[in-house]
Specification:
heterodimer, A: 412 residues, mainly alpha, 20 helices, B: 115 residues, alpha+beta, Alpha-Beta Plaits, two-stranded antiparallel ribbon
Chain lengths: 412, 115
């Protein structure tokens, strides 16, 4: 017999069940609920050893439902009074909560809880990965390159703010949705970036993080009230980036830059998905940075070889993006493009308009760009001195190796 | 052919706090092992045990509860299999999935009484 449990079933179902049960009991029981759901899976690992149920999801739902009733009883006993349902679930029977559309609804509510403004951005990502995506604290720590106790602290703080601010398991009011969606999209974007730009050596972790971000995006897109040009553009951007993930990591786990990527490894179904999302995005009136980022990513994907890249068009998009929302990283990226165009005057102008302090821990990119500029101009000495500066500013081994390699190339 | 009991000791998933992803992976390995033994037709029985322990001991029938028993000593389950000899069972036990979690398999021959 075939092993028919789909990948990540436990992890994804964990998020679903926690959301359903939270909808029923309210956020104040989150901790109890998480423990109960965890128990359900331990039970499954025992029981499924000899026979995997015909419908694993239904089995999990049934066990979770029974657990819900158990919890209800123990809460009643503990409080010695009749338990009153304080959330919006009061009108719904417990069976209805397990219907597909209600499950999605519960998970969406959880996304808004995770992205509530009273939580710190750090806490939001950790909380979302734990509660919605079913990562363990250890897995979150590995994914975010942080120590496990730091993650535990973030989660504790997040839960505390939820209690203290009496956050309800509901959607924001209609007038607040657009603004809250901005934060939701940012959390999804950051989660994706944690995976995509991570220096993490574990490829699976990268895929998991990026995959989760895309999944959350899809979940939101299912509901009409959350759709917007920005959300479609964000989805397109994530698809475009994701299509390159495979080619971005070499067999020996090194980062491969755009120039040297094997373009035949790009995953075209995702590019197509991104294209159609982009077509949807422009049907809406709102514009966002995601629109520009997606346009740029798409332009890179259009080029069959690095040399065929339409740098002019990309340069145009960077200009538009900066006009839409000024940002030092946009200037820096634009400068890199201008080097490709051998537009030295503009490169220097852009680099000079950057306030280095805006780049925080990424100043090495700025010096690296200067070095690139001087390499292209043929000034080895200045190029080396900027590479040295870049080396001083990065602690990351992979980046260090990258700059060292450049430097040796110039000296040798 | 003789009957042997494989007793699984340690590697309590609850205590180890395994993630969903790890639990699913473990489940798959146990399932595959079970399938393999079933296909060979050697399994006579087996169960998983709930990790709550009560012990009754001594002339006074003193009852002790679970917390006194450490997870690494906890019996999690057993299989009864048919095999030629203990060495053959050692071979079977190579597929036990939880060695990396410091789990142990104890192999014991089931005693046969003279008629």
């Amino acid at each position: 017999m075939e092993h028919k449990v789909v990948d990540h079933l436990f992890r994804h179902h964990y998020g679903k069940m926690v959301a359903i049960l939270t909808r029923f009991f309210g956020l104040s029981y989150l901790e109890t609920i998480e423990d109960a759901v965890q128990d359900t899976f331990i039970k499954a690992t025992w029981q499924w050893r000899t026979k995997i149920p015909d419908n694993p999801e239904a089995w999990l739902n049934r066990v979770a439902k029974n657990r819900t009733i158990d919890i209800l009883r123990s809460i009643q006993a503990e409080k010695n009074r009749n338990f009153k349902i304080t959330t919006g679930a009061s009108s719904l029977q417990i069976d209805e909560l397990f219907l597909d559309h209600e499950v999605a609804d519960s998970q969406l509510r959880m996304i808004f809880v995770a992205c509530h403004p009273s939580l710190h951005p750090n806490e939001q990502i950790a909380f979302a990965l734990k509660t919605i995506s079913g990562f363990s604290t250890k897995e979150i720590a590995a994914a975010l390159l942080t120590k496990e106790d730091a993650i535990v602290k973030r989660l504790t703080r997040a839960k505390k703010s939820i209690q203290e601010n009496n956050i309800q398991f509901k959607y924001p009011n209609p007038e607040a949705i657009q603004e809250r969606m901005l934060r939701v999209m940012e959390v999804i974007y950051l989660t994706f970036n944690e995976g995509f730009h991570s220096t993490n050596q574990d490829k699976l972790i990268k895929e998991d993080l990026c995959g989760e971000a895309i999944r959350l995006c899809q979940l939101l897109l299912k509901k009409e009230q959350f759709r917007s040009g920005s959300l479609y553009a964000l989805f397109a951007l994530l698809c475009f980036h994701m299509s390159r993930l495979e080619s971005k990591i070499s067999i020996d786990n090194q980062i491969v830059n755009l120039k040297n990527q094997d373009r035949t490894k790009w995953y075209f179904p995702l590019i197509k998905m991104g294209d159609s999302a982009m077509n949807k995005a422009v049907e809406y009136e709102d514009t966002s940075v995601y629109h520009y980022e997606a346009a740029i990513a798409s332009e890179h994907l259009n080029a069959k070889t690095f040399e065929e890249t339409n740098w002019k068009k990309i340069s145009y998009w960077y200009e538009q993006m900066y006009a839409f929302e000024p940002n030092s990283f946009t200037l820096l990226n634009h400068a890199t493009v201008c080097i490709q165009l051998s537009d030295f005057k503009k490169t220097l102008h852009l680099l000079n308009s950057i306030d280095v302090s805006d780049l925080v821990q990424r100043t090495y990119l700025y010096y690296g760009c200067y070095a690139e500029y001087y390499i292209k101009k043929g000034d080895k000495e200045l190029a080396i001195s900027f590479l040295n500066k870049a080396l001083l500013e990065t602690s990351n081994t992979l980046e260090k190796e990258f700059f060292m390699g450049k430097k040796e190339g110039l000296i040798g | 052919m003789k009957d042997f009991m494989m007793i699984f000791i340690g590697a309590d998933y609850q205590e180890l706090g395994l993630s969903q992803e790890q639990l699913q992976e473990r489940m798959g390995k146990w399932f595959a092992w079970n399938e393999k033994m079933m296909a060979q037709g050697i399994v006579k029985g087996g169960d998983a045990l709930v990790p709550h322990v009560k012990r009754v001991s001594g002339p006074k029938r003193t009852v002790t509860d679970a917390p006194l028993i450490e997870g690494k000593e906890l019996i999690g389950g057993y299989y009864i299999v048919q095999a030629e000899n203990a060495d053959a069972v050692v071979k079977i036990a190579e597929d036990y999935p939880d060695y990396d979690l410091n789990g142990t398999v104890e192999i014991r021959e089931v005693m046969v009484f003279e008629q």
